[in-house]
Write a structure and sequence with these properties.
Pfam families: C_LFY_FLO (PF17538), SAM_LFY (PF01698). It is built from 17 helices and 2 strands. By secondary structure, the chain is an all-alpha fold. It has 2 domains: about 90 residues, no CATH class; about 160 residues, Orthogonal Bundle (Protein LEAFY), CATH 1.10.4180.
Length: about 325
């Protein structure tokens, strides 16, 4: 049987095979390659935040990359998600909305910390000029390794000094109790965070006067300023180590005081008290869609601090467990 097209006869089998034949030269790159571009790719950007793979693929299909999302404003992100669900009829879950926002905020912080780390790692005496005679490429590499080793040794010495201070220089005390002995109480610990806030304001004022960019959070610049001001008890490892304890003190003072009394009565050490401060914070985050970043950013005394990675991971794990449990009960019903 032949198909007559105009005055030409065509074989239908040949027509079908020709119509559905793939031309390998015109195949577009797969979606997975586009997800790997930018600042880690959409797949990696959303992986730990409860966003489904198909949702990430749909966002990539619309032309968005991880770099684009990171550079977008909050209202632009909201507009993008509204367009995704309303115009393109995509079933965007409520948790995915918060997951996308949380992932973008986390990526922004990662980029900011990486940039700050690169600035802090620059040698203070300036870059040495390579106008001296060099014998070979091996000598150049050897010199570079020696220079980097000197820098790392200096950083390690500073970190070791800070680590010695970090070895739990506090004891568990009740609210209003003054510690005895060499170690300080928890009221003093929380007072250090208030001091950091004051130092941040001073650094911001100095930056405004000199026309430089003002830091909005307690960064390495603030810790260096505190050290120059004589506040040697304030250092980055110590303040980052107990920041979630201070967060509980700010968000739920009654629960914080109850924990302090409980651990003081049982004679437990400050390390155990520090670990116990995580669970109440996860419970608080559960009441706000597990968005611990939004809780920190909306609080006047916590917005200047970065959310600890472990606390964020615990909130995400609790959210995923809650979602899987609710799904299981729904299936049983």
């Amino acid at each position: 049987m032949y198909v007559v097209l105009g005055d030409r006869k065509m074989d239908p089998d040949a027509f079908t095979s020709t119509l559905f034949k793939w031309d390998s030269r015109t195949i577009l790159p797969t979606c997975s390659s586009s997800l790997m571009e930018g600042t880690g790719g959409l797949k990696e950007l959303f992986h730990a935040y409860g966003v489904r793979y198909y949702t990430a693929a749909k966002v990539a299909e619309l032309g968005f990359t991880a770099r684009t999302l990171v550079d977008m404003k909050e209202e632009e992100l909201e507009h993008m998600m509204n367009s995704l669900s309303q115009i393109f009829r995509w079933d965007l879950l409520v948790g995915e909305r918060y997951g996308i926002k949380a992932a973008v905020r986390a990526e922004r912080r990662r980029i900011q910390d990486h940039h700050q780390l690169r600035i802090d790692s620059l040698p203070q005496e300036g870059v040495q000029q390579h106008k001296e005679a060099v014998g070979s490429t091996w000598d150049v590499r050897k010199r570079m390794r020696s220079r980097s080793k000197t820098m790392s040794d200096e950083e390690e010495e500073e970190e070791e000094e800070e680590e010695r201070q970090r070895e739990h220089p506090f004891i568990v005390t009740e609210p209003g109790e003054v510690a005895r002995g060499k170690k300080n109480g928890l009221d003093y610990l929380f007072h250090l965070y208030e001091q950091c806030r004051d130092f941040l304001i001073q650094v911001q004022n100095i930056a405004k006067e000199s026309g430089q960019k003002c830091p909005t959070k307690v960064t390495n610049e603030v810790f260096r300023y505190a050290k120059k001001a004589g506040a040697h008890c304030i250092n980055k490892p110590k303040m980052r180590h107990y920041v979630h304890c201070y967060a509980l003190h700010c968000l739920d003072k009654d629960t914080s005081n109850q924990l302090r009394r409980q651990f003081k009565e049982t004679g437990q050490k400050v390390g155990a008290w520090r670990q116990a401060c995580y669970n109440p914070l996860v419970a608080i985050a559960a009441l706000h869609h597990h968005d611990i970043d939004a809780i920190f950013n909306s609080h006047p005394r916590l917005s200047i601090w970065y959310v600890p990675t472990k606390l964020r991971q615990l909130c995400h794990a609790h959210r995923n467990n809650s979602a899987s449990t609710s799904t299981h009960h729904h299936l049983l019903f």
